[in-house]
Design brief:
single chain, 859 residues, alpha/beta, 7-stranded parallel beta sheet, 7-stranded mixed beta sheet, 21% strand
């Protein structure tokens, strides 16, 4: 997930602003902080903000004590104070402190509900403002303050530390920070100080412009491709369509952690240490999210999308939601909680399926478990925490009803087919990491995945961009869109697997720039020669429409009056029409060049002698084209513009001879007229036949195209269905494994406990019993499912059935001392059987042997 806030402009330039280190501590943190700052010299480039949990009414003397322990200057922070390198700024009591515009801002704590978490608040402000120059350190303390803020610092590109638990007086805060998985270093306070000084010298943290622009520090495209190849080998994910600036920041951050200032050296590290490729992969896919992030977006869904999705929905028709890029599950669970609350208010009973996917397998495993730390559930209201979570060993687990709404699976958006028939797609803060090509493909996939009345929600920094014709705006502020009908695009699966992203690794390096320039000059020379010495001509397609003019063709072609028409036979001048038509027909039939010589064309009352050549052009996967060349036979310009010779009529020698010549011309004219009429009739017949055949072909082509589209749609639906089945299968497999482990644990627990225990349901039928209960209750394995009242136990307690009903109905445990048939004493305990959903589904009977205690003589 991304950080949605835009850093404000700092009052200091990047190369002069100090490196801000936020240090959070609580109980035992003051001593740890002293050991940390002992490592810093007086001229340290760091500005340290020390955020400590202080008593509201206690006057702080920390600044004075720290000044004595360190050569750095320590002062109490005040509102509007600028941060300078080499200084320590201590938070005053009973306030929140933030970093804004290069200055400290203080806010009163009074009147605020909930826990006081000044470390998280300062770390979050530091992440927004300082970005890559932010450093967060969590020291000794109780609680989990600082854990969420540390995650945001890492997401913004900063560096994170926490004190090693064994060196901390109170290890709760360091362990909470470690549990997020976002602590780059886990060290003792002294080692943290030394590492901070080393980091301050690295160009990534120091932001030294001259060093950042170094060719050795800036990765080239070839460097990126090598790294992409190694990441793809280790993780199976192709990052070639991720935005380069984001990848570069993550890469430089990993180099800073290893104190490397040379990209080539870091590539060698990746080759020698496969684990580093996994760490870089985790950094690129950093999972920064929390419950109900941007709560107003969930309000927009509840008010504008949910009512329309449930309108006229049948009770048996499931509501399908896809949440790609779900990270560790907080977002899909937040969607499920919002839906559960909405359906409860509207008294709706509709099955809900939320398909939550992510490319990170580790994130999916965390989401599938549904177990979150105290810091993770902090954004939730007490009401939601009580209603939808169950405390488990100091953590909180999503209750069964919400977990059953969500199905988690690994899914690569760039490669795997999308889900289908979804009512809502929620993909927030994912597209901002991807280039335009992949964004366009994913938006097309989301459009395909949605039903005609479906909704799409994006992150606050994302839009549908060029795909606006596919989605209509519902809520511009919260990036909520609805699907437009009739704007479908063909889906393109698997271009990330085509090897495009790994081009240099497969095809070798790009040619040097000098070769590219040389080839461009050659092209310019060729163009110049063609324009001066090559004959003019045109390139026409199979429909005889001109697609390209080559040279000056005005002497041979002219546009016809009326609408624009580029048909070559409509544009050719009269003297060339018949010969050009014949040449084109012959070239089409023979697929060979056809030449016509000694032709005469008129232009503005002048004549030109022309040779004509038609050359068919055959290219793979394309229709036939024809190159028509006009060869001008005129010797020079004067000759080309010479007037056409006027025909001098021959004087007849005698009247009879004149009549004979006139009659001959009349016969020739009549013959020509008949010939032309017959040719026109034949042409019309041929045209009608061709037109009829063309219409049949067009109709057949439309039918084939329709069939092809139906097959494509069926294929896409099958791919989507297959992906959905794979997802469900993975979820069921995971749940089966979990149930198997739980069942094994339960069997071993019951076998090892030497206490007679019998579990019954509300009808008093036996659910399970321990081996120790077999003798006392006369049980055998086949008794599971039998009513307990049908048994003849070896204990003397006729009230057992009534007492069981009493405990189930009144939900109150019961204890009594009873004896068995041999007179041995037992303590009978009957407790309600409570399910994980806090429902009473029976009772648990336990018998503890107290015979030795009862028979012990009283003193």
């Amino acid at each position: 997930m991304a950080n949605d806030s835009t850093p404000a402009a700092d009052s200091q330039t990047p190369d002069t602003a100090p490196i801000i280190v936020g240090v959070g501590a609580s109980t035992g943190g003051f001593d740890a902080f002293q050991r940390l700052i002992e490592q810093f010299p007086a001229g340290s480039p760091l500005a340290i903000a020390f955020v400590l949990h202080l008593l509201p009414s206690h006057e702080s003397m920390l600044a004075e004590l720290l000044s004595r322990a360190s050569p750095m200057n320590a002062v109490d922070a005040y509102d509007g104070q600028s941060l300078e390198a080499g200084c320590i700024y201590v938070i005053p009591p009973d306030v929140y402190m933030e970093y804004r515009d290069g200055k400290i801002k203080l806010f009163p704590r009074a009147g605020e509900l909930g826990a006081f978490l000044p470390i998280d608040r300062f770390f979050m402000s530091l992440a927004r403002e300082a970005g890559e120059r932010a450093i967060g350190v969590v020291l000794s303390g109780m609680g989990s303050d600082g854990a969420i803020g540390l995650r945001q610092i890492k997401e913004a590109g900063g560096v994170t530390f926490c004190q090693s638990p064994e060196s901390a007086e109170q290890d709760e805060m360091p362990r909470a920070a470690m549990a997020t998985g976002d602590a780059d270093f886990v060290l003792s306070p002294a080692d943290i100080g030394k590492t901070l000084l080393d980091l301050a010298q690295h160009p990534y943290v120091a932001k030294a412009p001259d060093k950042l622009e170094s060719a050795k520090l800036r990765p080239s495209e070839e460097d990126f491709y090598q790294i992409f190849a190694m990441l793809r080998t280790s993780s199976g994910v192709d990052f070639s369509h991720y935005k380069r600036p984001t990848l570069q920041r993550r890469l430089l951050r990993r180099m800073a952690l290893h104190k490397i200032t040379n990209v080539a050296e870091y590539i060698r590290l990746l080759e020698s240490r496969p684990q580093e490729a996994n760490e870089l992969y985790r950094d690129i896919l950093i999972n920064v999210t929390f419950f109900f992030r941007e709560p107003l977006s969930f309000t927009a869904l509840t008010e504008k999308a949910f009512p329309r999705l449930f309108d006229q929905r049948k009770p048996e028709e499931p509501l399908r939601i896809w949440a790609p890029g779900c990270s560790t599950g907080e977002e899909p669970y937040s969607l499920a909680i919002s839906l559960a609350e909405f359906m409860a208010r509207q008294s709706l009973e509709v099955p809900v399926q939320i398909f939550a996917t992510d490319v990170s397998e580790n994130a999916i495993e965390t989401a599938r478990a549904g177990l979150y730390s105290d810091a993770a559930v902090r954004p939730l209201s007490p009401e939601r925490l009580r209603r939808f979570f169950t405390p488990v060993d100091g953590k909180y687990r999503i209750n069964k009803k919400i977990r059953e709404m969500c199905v988690f699976a690994r899914h690569d958006l760039a490669r795997d087919p999308p889900f289908s028939r979804c009512d809502l797609v929620v993909c927030r803060n994912v597209l901002i990491y991807l280039d335009q090509m992949l964004q366009k493909r994913l938006l097309t996939a989301f459009h395909y995945a949605l039903k005609p009345n479906g909704f799409l929600m994006l992150g606050s920094a994302e839009t549908v961009g060029m795909q606006g014709d596919m989605f209509a705006i519902v809520d511009k502020k919260h990036r909520l869109y609805s699907k437009r009908a009739g704007a479908a695009r063909p889906l393109d699966y698997g271009f990330a697997d085509s090897g495009e992203g790994l081009r240099p690794a497969l095809l070798g390096p790009k040619p040097p720039r000098e070769h590219v320039i040389h080839r461009t000059v050659q092209q310019e020379v060729n163009q110049l020669i063609l324009s001066k010495y090559a004959p003019p001509g045109v390139l026409v397609n199979d429909k005889l429409e001109i697609v390209q003019f080559r040279g000056q063709t005005g002497y041979f072609l002219e546009p016809p009056p009326g609408e624009v028409n580029l048909h070559v036979l409509k544009m050719v001048r009269a003297g060339l029409l018949h010969d050009l038509r014949d040449a084109l027909d012959e070239a089409r039939k023979s697929h060979a060049a056809v030449r016509k010589e000694d032709l005469h064309v008129a232009f503005n009352g002048h004549g030109r002698e022309v040779n004509l050549e038609v050359i068919p052009i055959l290219a793979p996967d394309e229709a036939i084209h024809f190159l028509i060349l006009f060869e001008d036979l005129s010797a020079d310009a004067e000759h080309r513009l010479a007037p056409l010779p006027r025909r001098q009529p021959k004087k007849p020698d005698a009247p009879g001879e004149e009549e004979t010549e006139t009659e001959q011309l009349r016969r020739e004219l009549e013959t020509t007229r008949k010939y032309l009429q017959a040719a026109i009739q034949d042409l019309e017949v041929n045209n009608e036949e061709l037109q009829s055949a063309n219409e049949e072909v067009i109709s057949s082509n439309e039918e084939l195209q329709s069939t092809n589209e139906e097959l494509d749609t069926a294929k896409e639906e099958l791919q989507s269905t297959n992906e959905e089945l794979n997802t469900l299968n993975a979820e069921l497999h995971s749940r089966n494994e979990e149930l198997s482990r739980v069942n094994s644990d339960l069997v071993n627990l019951l076998s090892s406990v030497q206490i007679a225990v019998v579990m019954v349901d509300r009808a008093l039928c036996i659910r399970r019993f321990t081996p120790a209960a077999e003798k006392l209750f006369n049980l055998i394995p086949t008794d599971v499912g039998r009513p307990i009242q049908h048994l003849k136990p070896n204990i003397v307690y006729p009230e057992l059935e009534r007492r069981l009903h009493q405990v189930i109905d009144e939900v109150q445990p019961l204890e009594e001392e009873i004896q068995d048939a041999q007179g041995s004493w037992f303590l009978l305990r009957i407790r309600p059987y409570c399910s994980v959903d806090n429902r009473i589904e029976g009772a648990v009977v336990a018998l503890l042997d107290i015979d030795a205690i009862k028979r012990r003589p009283s003193s």
